Amino acid sequence: SVQKAYEISLSDLENTILDIAPVSTPCTFRLIDCGRFSKQRTLLIYETTDIPKVGYATISYPWVGNVCNERVPPEGKLFRVAQGPGTTGGDPISISILDRVCFLATVENIDFLWLDRLCIRQEDPVDKKWQI
Length: 132
What we know:
Blueprint: E1 2-9, H1 10-13, E2 17-18, E3 29-33, H2 34-40, E4 42-48, E5 56-59, H3 67-71, E6 78-81, E7 91-94, H4 95-107, E8 112-115, H5 116-119, H6 125-131
Parallel strand pairs: 2-6, 5-8
Antiparallel strand pairs: 1-4, 3-4, 3-8, 6-7
Helix pairs in contact: 2-4
């Protein structure tokens, strides 16, 4: 069964630290709803215990410290993803880049996106290992 794990408007998301751990289930598949992101300006993440039976794209967001990330810093409005206890700030994600990716996915009739930085509970080593 598919459940809504997390939902937030993009205006509320800006300049925040996103932590899906309190509202998500370890070792489940999570997908971002591209249509909701692009058209309704809402980040909506679904989760399911079964391999999703819908078409989705997968993307690996550049890790902080990679050369490409240092040469091309995130553009526009940002939010960050919590990295776990004892860390500060979290990894940044550009809302405008995520918006472009979601838009392009919907143009190709792909409704969902698996983005490692958002769909893996970054502070949970069990979930991270399971997802990878």
